[in-house]
Every structure is written in structure tokens, then in C-alpha cells.
Design goal:
InterPro entries: Mito_RNA-Proc/Resp, PPR_rpt, TPR-like_helical_dom_sf. The protein has 486 residues and is an all-alpha fold. Helix content is 72%, strand content 0%. Among the domains are: 69 residues, no CATH class; 68 residues, no CATH class.
Amino acid sequence: MMILKAQPQCTSRGLRLSSASFLLHSVASDAEAVYRMVNNGSGGELKESLSSSGIHLSKDLIDKVVKRARFSHANPLQALELYRYADARRGFYHSAFSLDTMLYILGRNRKLDLIWEVLIETKRKDDGSLITPRTMQVVLGRVAKLCSVRQTVESFWKFKRLLPPPPHSFFHTSASFNALLRTLCQEKTMTDARNVYHSLKHQFHPDLQTFNILLSGWRSSEEAEAFFHEMTKEKGLKPDLVTYNSLIDVYCKAREMDKAYKLIDKMREEDVTPDVITYTTIIGGLGLIGQPDKAREVLKEMKEYGCYPDVPAYNAAIRNYCIARRLRDADMLVDEMVKKGLSPNATTYNLFFRVLSLSNDLGRSWELYVRMLGNGCLPNTQSCMFLIKMFKRHERVDMALRLWQDMVVKGFGSYSLVSDVLFDLLCDLARVEEAEKCLLQMVEKGHRPSNVSFKRIKLLLELANKHHELNNLKQKMAIFSTEIQL
């Protein structure tokens, strides 16, 4: 029986959809064109290119370009040139996303002075309303990574001068205090964060989130319990699921599983239902005390309580077997995951890569990598580093180049980290043509090679009398001229 297809009718809704699709495509293509200008231009050239392009610099377009600049590690000064060029246009206002992303790019490239210049410019234009707790955390995160705790706290207070006056400012609220504490937890130590908490807590208003931020990572369960007591008894705050999960995590890392189980019982008494994170933490704790089989039973137990394991839960159980070098049991859990409709992710594969790397098993590592791609799972940077280091140890240029080409084509992994090991291998074996080709691919993607790698390849080209290739390479590298010596 033939099914007749209805002829498409041109409706106003269809026209609207077509117009919307066209606009989305237009913004995407314009964003790509502007990104190429940012990536290839320099100084006044960029302004001239933008001015003559006729491209309308909308807020959405700038969002897309700065996002691309962040993830492709584009030249930070060129990205800032675009940001300021757009900001100077009449009636244009950046989004909070563009501001935070631009600040992240500058911070990652150690341009801290420029961060404060941009923030001051932002305050002048819109009275600082674009500056949010997230902005504060982005900036403080980069400062904390490069500077001391004291300098991080000083930077925190600098935000007070950038924000609107009370009551419109969020500075003296728990949101800003929590941003500072979360940054210190991530970039410094929990001890640093807690010391700052005790020195500043009387000037702010700690809330439940404040305690949840600080509760994890204690060196001893006694210290965590004392902090828990301050929160519940002195401050009168009622613990939530996050609070309990944090304390259970402390117990599990301290290998005090009896306390962890008792706390789960207390949760149920207070009608706080354990979730998949609770059980995943327990699985990890059982692995630490050498009980991978008991941890596997937790996967079944949690189902009885109506909580179904997800990929991280399975990964925790798989990790236990990998640590015990019981790869067959780990494999069986992967099969079980797949049967449950869950897809192994890069973390799953990395658990196996780690064991194979420690045993220097090149063959099985390569088989696993091929299977990983075949299953549609892209490696992450950790996967790539396990592999490229093993390829270097075995001097397998063919495998290293295959991994690199997959990265270029499929867009995974860190070019900067992988390239250092790759170029070491190629230069050690005097594979000058392959080294030059890979470096050019990297530069064309907007990624800057390290000074050491560039100098080694430059020397190889000079020794091989490849002056034309070297000049071509220098021209391509000109966009990084302020950060790398040609």
C-alpha cells in the first residue's frame, strides 16, 4: 500500500521557523568569521577587518566568539581587542556570560592587571550590575591559582569598590562570602578556607551553603563533627542531603564505614532520602578498605530503595576492581552497565588505561582505545596522556600520530599537553616533517605550542636546511609573537 505524502504548505508559522533557522545559521556563520579574524589578525588589523566586514556584532555573536576563544585557547589579547571593540559601539552592552568568559581567558593567561581594567570599564558603563557572584568566583579562582591566600582575600575586598552601594550590592551577603570560600577550597586548601571563614564570619551571614562548602575534606572525622555541631547547634541550621553526603564522604575517606552507615540510618529517621551520590560515596569507601565485592552488592541494595545506579556509581565500583587488578570483574560491570542502558564514559575507560599504563601493556591499551572510539566515546585529556606517554615509551610514532590526527579531526583532548609529549617523541627520533606538520595543525587550530617544543622543531628545521618551511612556520606563529620567541 502506498502512503501518499501530504504536500508541504507555506504557512506563516513555517515562514517564521524558516526565518528563525536562517538567523541562527547567519549568527553562527558570522561568529565563525569573526573568530577567524580574532585568531589571524593582530592589533589594528582586527579593528580594520571587523569594520570592513559589515558583520553586525550582536550580544549573541560576541557570546559565541568569546566562548570559542576560551575553549580553543585563542590569543587573549586579540580576544580582548574584540571585546573592547564591541563594547565601544553605541548602544552595545555585553552579557554577563561574555564578561565572565573574557575574565576567565585573561586570568588563565596570567593577565591579572587586565582583569581589573575590564572590571573597572564594566562599572563605568553599567554601574557594575553585570558583576555577579559568578564573576567574583571566576576572578578569585584565577587569582588564587597564581597568588597567595592573602592576595586572594585582598582581591575579594577590591570587589566591594566595584559593586553598587547597599542595598543593591550582593557583597555583604552570603553569596559573595560563599564565592570566596568555594574558591579557596578549590585552589588552596580546606584549612585556608576554614581559617578565612573564622576570620570573616562575623562580617557576613553564613548560611547552609556556607557550611556545605566547608564540610568536605576534613583531615579527621572529629574536626568535621565539631564543625557539624557548630552548624546545627550554634547556628541552628538544619542539615540537608548535601550536608549529610559531605559528612559521609569524610567518614568514607577516613575508612570509618560504621559511622557512615549509622549516618545513613539517621538520614532515614529524619526523612532525608539517600541519593545516588550517597551510595556512590559508600562504594568508594568500601574500595578504600579493600572490599570491592561488598561495594558491588551496594549497587543491588540501592535498587531495593528505589535509587538506581548511574554511570559514576558504576565507575566507583569498577575503580575498586581496577585497583585490585581484577580486570575481568571490572569488565563484567561494564557489560552490566551497557545492559542497563548506560554508556561507559571517558572516566570508565581511564580506569582501565591507568592499570594498563602501570603494567606498560601497549597492545591492550591500543585495543581499548580503538574500541573506545568504535563505541562513540571520545577520550578526554587524561585518556590522551595515558596513551601518548605509553607511545613515547615504546617509540610508536605511528600510534602517536594516529592519536594526534584523531584529536585534530574529532576535537578532543588538550593540544598543549599532548603536543609536548608528541613533539618530544618526534624530535628524539628526528622526524622533522611529521613534527612540522603537527605543529602547523596545532597553530591553525589556534593553539600555542610551548616554547620548548617550538625551539626543538625550529632547531631540527635549521639542521635539515628546511629554511622555506621554517619561514612558513614563523609566519603562522606570528599570532603568538607576544607569548613565544620566534
